[in-house]
Structure formats: C-alpha cells, structure tokens
Amino acid sequence: MARAMWDSSVGKKTVMAVSGLIMLLYLIVHMIGNLKIYFGAAEFNHYAHWLRTVGEPFMHYEWTLWLVRIVLVVAVVAHATSAYQLSRRDIKARPVKYVHKKARSSYATRTMRWGGIILGLFIVWHILDLTTGTVHSGGFQEGHPYQNVVDTFSTWYGNVIYIVAMLALGLHIRHGFWSAAQTLGAGSRTRDRVLKTVANVLALLLTAGFIAVPVGVMTGVVS
Fold first, then answer.
1. What is the 3-state secondary structure (H, E, C) of the chain?
2. How many CA atoms lie within 13 A of 73 on its CB side?
3. 172, 119 in Cβ contact below 8 A?
4. 129 burial class (0-12, 13-18, 19+ CB within 10 angstroms)?
5. CA 138 – CA 150 distance, rounded (Å)
6. pTM of the predicted model as reported, rounded to 2 decimal places
7. In whole angstroms, what is the distance from residue 140 CA to residue 129 CA?
8. Distance CA 72, CA 126 (A)
9. pLDDT per residue over 39-73, tens digit each?
10. 155-177 burial, b for 16+ CB within 10 Å, e for fewer?
C-alpha cells in the first residue's frame, strides 16, 4: 500500500507537501532565533547554547537538537527526491515543450527547479560555514556563534551567497505553500485568495527576516 502510494504522482506530491511544511515550520523558528542577534552577543550565544540543552535532563545534551536535524534531513531528502522524480515523470509525459511558457506558469513556478538546486547548495555551504567551520572565512570559534556569524557577513561573498539563497527561498515558499495547500485538499474557490495571500506574506516575512541578519552586520548595527 505504502509502495503503491509512493509510486503514484499523488503520493509524491503529498510527500513534497508534508516535507515542505515541516521545513517551513523549522524556517519560521530558525528565523526568529536568528533575529536574536540584534540583542547582542550574550543573548545570541545563550540561545545557541539553549538549543543544545533543550529537553534536559530527560534528553541528553544535544539529543533534541540531533533529533531535529534527523527529521530535517529526512524531510529535505524526501522533498528533493519527490521533486526530481515528478520532474522526470513530467518531462517523459510531455516531451514536446510548450510554446507559451508564460501562459502555463508564473515566474516562481518556472524557477522552482533552479531555486531548489540553489537552496540545496546553500544548505551544504551554510553547514560547512557556521556548523563545522570548514569553509569559514575567519578563525572559526567553537561555542561563539555570534562572532562566527559576524565574520561570515563581513565578507562580500558571504553576503552574496546568503542573500541570493534567501531570495530563492522566498520564491520557493511563495509557490510551494500554495501548492502544498492544494495537494493536501485545503484549497477551494473561496479559500484560494486567502491561501495565496498567506503564501505571499510568509515568503516576504521569511525573506526579510533572514536577510535582516547580513544587513545588520553590513550596516554596523550588529558588530
């Protein structure tokens, strides 16, 4: 039953919708946490430490954080795999390209594929930069996330990579949220306008919220 569901286009779209909503929830929480950087190094570093102690003493140190990471990895892999397989299936079913692309999709729809690739590459860079410190621009300081963030956004390429990725994220959310609502049966003639408005607002707030961090460093508000 589960195999048949996965093999169907409806099943893959459902997996994409559910995994996308899981990642969206994480992004909202992550953005709020990121904005704590405006309250200073002590507040931001304390928040980063708290993430590793959530659930104690029932959960061991970092167990909750690793549980969240595992869920996110599964969601990302499921989302990307479903998207790729649906894309290949769509190409095989429609080998002749449409003449009028603009008539069948919005700008966000046409860039979802490339946006997904950009975000995938960004996730790898982001982890290597601020989690492992492998590609960090300055001297990576374990346990000092505030200074590590400031170091990253004190470089022009760190800002460019991050801002481009967040713009791609905004487009992805704008289309993806509405699409997920349709897949999960939340859409209707009367609710479509509300869902599109929510999608636009979420995309705008998340994009602005994430970009506020490098902007804060560039303008000297965060230093």
1. CHHHHHHCHHHHHHHHHHHHHHHHHHHHHHHHHHHHHHHCHHHHHHHHHHHHHCCCCCCCCCHHHHHHHHHHHHHHHHHHHHHHHHHHHHHHHCCCCCCCHHHHCCHHHHCHHHHHHHHHHHHHHHHHHHCCCCCCCCCCCCCCHHHHHHHHCCCHHHHHHHHHHHHHHHHHHHHHHHHHHHHCCCCCCCCHHHHHHHHHHHHHHHHHHHHHHHHHHHCCCCC
2. 8
3. yes
4. buried
5. 10
6. 0.89
7. 9
8. 15
9. 999 999 999 999 999 999 999 999 999 999 999 99
10. eeebbebbbebbebbbbbbbbbb
Handedness of CA 94, 100, 103, 109 (dihedral sign): positive
Kindly tell me if the per-residue pLDDT of 156 is higher than 70: yes
